[in-house]
């Protein structure tokens, strides 16, 4: 990407037109191309920096391999099961969703499904319109006073609970992550799954599809439900064993089931189709004007912000940076990346552990972005494609142990980041601070105090502290037309080991480094780049 090129965004699923408008307003070039085959998407995706999707586009390994410019994927909605997140992380692509934009709408759909089941509205409607006037065939049930079993009490589950309480239902919730305090606040009874299954007159599911929730309503669990239970699933297909549900409907143990989502979508056929007391919708949970405007606006704002300013909101594979945190954290992240890069460039041997210590003011900040920035700088010597997103993933993949340590007390500096690496040869560290809370400065290098701005092309020399050295190095660089920008010296003690960090206006060629290495007293000479 050239510096003047605007970020390019592809909207590949049907989305409210506000998304394209916002992208354009935020300075992105945007194309809306929906309904393509995977092969067409693979052929096209290499041109784009951002991809905005709903649930139809499948972002597979093959798509990500072809997405050579892609930096961010935004899901206008909640579920991201159509994105290979681990592979996106490995490729350094941020994945975002819009976790709240369609929650009310989906909760309302679940309640609508519950009423549709309680009063058999779809079938009564169909028969009435056929002219049958089936007044006696549709005896319903009230929901008032009944128990609603809520599986999953997150954003949508908690809205469903509040609506159900308003309908004078009792709500029993099963969610291993629901605290007793939150259950009290929501006005629900926290229960284990078996208790919920035994008590509920209606069951509604609101969990993601995970290894733990897959088939949570299995044949065995369906058998534990109360006879006459009615079941609603507006979360994800795969939470219910569909064949077992059909059998339970056929036997009358389950009095009704309403699915918005199916194990395989689009569900063009299903053993459940045509089953008595079964109703369904084609994944319409989020389909209201309000929700689609919300998620379209949010996804465009989030992606546009990331592509134009680097701000991160609602990312699933990288720590979020709120608008309040971002200005404070940015200089720390720049410092952290420079320190990681310095250690990476100066440590040619295998590193078993990297520790990131923060001291003073730095301890008050969100450590995750600081750690990711150190790792990103550190791994850059090993990987050209490392970035803030894939750095923690790469570190793990390479067996690098990462430690975070906070020390509230301050030493010489009001704020400090120290990066230590452990190799077979032992442990050594570099440390830096922020001048005026904004300018990253190195203050210590492998135990020697040296102040330097780590920037552009630099030269690092370890030598014996002796008269005449500075003149000799100055002459060598001058003879090779290398202009020195800054000159930073430090030493362990007079006449002991000394380090010199020079910023130079042009890269130092190999032969100059070799010549520097041969100067009297020089132990090591190395070019650095930041
Ligand atoms: N039908 C649609 O169009 C539609 C629209 C929006 C969301 N959804 C889906 O609805 C589901 C819920 O969305 P949300 O925004 O409420 O998500 P959320 O993350 O806010 O809530 C999910 C809840 O499930 C709980 N949970 C996780 N594992 C569990 C387990 N093993 N047993 C019980 N509970 C468990 C979590 O603790 C959390 O409270 C998601 O699957 C989402 O994709 C569907
Ligand atoms: O985009 C949709 O229509 C479905 C969205 C829904 O499944 C979600 O998880 O947000």
Automatic annotation (TrEMBL):
Stretches assigned to the D-isomer specific 2-hydroxyacid dehydrogenase NAD-binding domain: 111-285
Record GO terms (molecular function): phosphoglycerate dehydrogenase activity
Catalytic reaction list: (2R)-3-phosphoglycerate + NAD(+) = 3-phosphooxypyruvate + NADH + H(+); (R)-2-hydroxyglutarate + NAD(+) = 2-oxoglutarate + NADH + H(+)
Pfam family, one: 2-Hacid_dh_C
Record-annotated D-isomer specific 2-hydroxyacid dehydrogenase catalytic domain positions: 9-317
Record-annotated D-3-phosphoglycerate dehydrogenase ASB domain positions: 328-445
InterPro entries from the UniProt entry: ACT-like_dom_sf (IPR045865), ACT_dom (IPR002912), ASB_dom_sf (IPR029009), D-2-hydroxyacid_DH (IPR050857), D-isomer_2_OHA_DH_cat_dom (IPR006139), D-isomer_DH_CS (IPR029753), D-isomer_DH_NAD-bd (IPR006140), NAD(P)-bd_dom_sf (IPR036291)
Keyword Amino-acid biosynthesis: yes
The entry's keywords: Amino-acid biosynthesis, NAD, Oxidoreductase, Serine biosynthesis
The organism's place on the tree of life at top rank: Bacteria
Pathway per the UniProt entry: Amino-acid biosynthesis; L-serine biosynthesis; L-serine from 3-phospho-D-glycerate: step 1/3
Domain named ACT: residues: 462-520
The enzyme's E.C. designation: 1.1.1.95
Function comment: Catalyzes the reversible oxidation of 3-phospho-D-glycerate to 3-phosphonooxypyruvate, the first step of the phosphorylated L-serine biosynthesis pathway. Also catalyzes the reversible oxidation of 2-hydroxyglutarate to 2-oxoglutarate.
Family, as annotated: Belongs to the D-isomer specific 2-hydroxyacid dehydrogenase family.
Protein's UniProt name: D-3-phosphoglycerate dehydrogenase
Gene that this sequence comes from: serA
